[in-house]
Amino acid sequence: MSAESKKAHNFIQSLIEDAIAKGEHTGKVVTRFPPEPNGYLHIGHAKSICLNFGIAETFDGVCTLRFDDTNPEKESQEYIDAIKQDVHWLGYEWAGEVRYASDYFDAIYDFAVELIERGKAYVCALTADQMAEYRGTLKEPGQNSPYRDRPVDENLKLFRDMRDGKFQNGELVLRAKIDMASPNINMRDPILYRIRYADHHQTGDKWCIYPMYDFTHPISDAMEGITHSLCTLEFEDHRPLYDWVLENISAPCQPRQIEFARLNLNYTITSKRKLRRLVDEGFVDGWNDPRMPTISGLRRRGYTPDSIRTFCDMIGVNKAGGTVDMGMLEHAIREDLNTRAPRAMCVMRPLKVTLTNYPEDKTETLVLPVHPQNPDMGEREVTWTRTLFIDREDFAEEPPRKWKRLAPDQAVRLRGGYVMTCREVIRDDSGEIVELKCEYDPNTLGVNPEGYKPNGVVHWVSATDSIETDINQYDRLFNHESPDSDKETDFVESINPDSLVVLKGARVEKSLATPRTDLPYQFEREGYFFCDQELTAAAGRPVFNRTVTLRDSWGKGK
Description:
Main location: cytoplasm
Enzyme class: ligase
Subunit structure: Monomer.
Structural class: alpha/beta
Binding site for L-glutamine: 68, 213
EC number: 6.1.1.18
């Protein structure tokens, strides 16, 4: 067992170890990650991916990737491709070829016929409204369908006719015959098949009837020889139905289902239906918008696979529900990037500085470390010129108490460069400050000045030897800790109006003319920022997305 596996020890691992020790489980451990291809994966799926692949790795087993594709009206190849990319990006390789539940449609149909022949399933003609009425409530038992006692031969003929396209959408369904008085509503004669005239992304127009997810899922697990079917807690009430299905057909095996708590993250929505609404109604710029909790959105924002796997390890796996603080996810990416991210300077809101005592025709090349704590990452060059840019927020004409930046007749050190003192403030006709006239101290490169003390350190870039860029300052998409908790309020009303602030005309060091695209930069004193390849190509100049601030400042003022 690897050190990493020991670190991630959880109750599921303990259950498997106990079963092995008692001889209840022998042979290889086989898990699977079974997404429905009806949307993009989100951070909650990342937890499931890490768990399923991690358990397989711990016990020298295998983990497969299977798409539970039972609803062609909501599924597409786009989602399949995106899911495969996300799993690979997180660092996992599935065993063998990608599987699809649709690979087993012929076998699933045959199992349905087997249930009919055993008197365990029947064709029902109740409408959806009637079926809901017959189902009963949590306090009252349901009623048997008037079609429940059809003869087997009649059910077989109707089911074949359904398959052969002799009925319309919704006209008939195939239902399991279990118990309409069961306290578990999932066991009250659930639907196994429905009619859907829709082309399937894998099987085309071969089928006009499709098995329900709750019928397909356990059969697919059994067909693949899955030993441990790991599901989130919302499937706990479905387990009796899964067991009933496998016990009443000639299934090749019966996987052990173990449920764990799903990931609930505050300030976040993880319902695919609601995420799709954000996309479809234009609240965000697609599934991979950096504000989305999708894996592709996190990737585009600059999150790393290591940080997400670390986060999943931090939150652990348990049976108890609860909500995880978004700060834990942000902490994971800060910890990762603090040691690995190259440093650079970016002036978000440029304010021109002219060094009046620096020669107009002179420049200097200053050498700064790529990472101050990691000399192996090398050095970078920045150009010192007569005209520079500093950030507008680093100057105050009337500085507040304990001000540690530039002010009239006060000095600051420019990061890695000289000390300068502000001598004059230049305004335009509207009264806006457009330039600072400063004097630099030529004796302060790498040494402290004599006779006075700088009022702090600010970052800068050369006005003539820097690159124009755009900055997307992303923040949390919602300003409510639980955006969908109030059933009387539409969750979109909690969208944070400041979740995206676009800064045009920022300036970065010349070394970022062709920025790296594998890892964010730490823009000194500002945060971590990742080059957006898609937006960069469209803009013709670098565009950076803020991954995360340097420290957690949510709700404390930025």
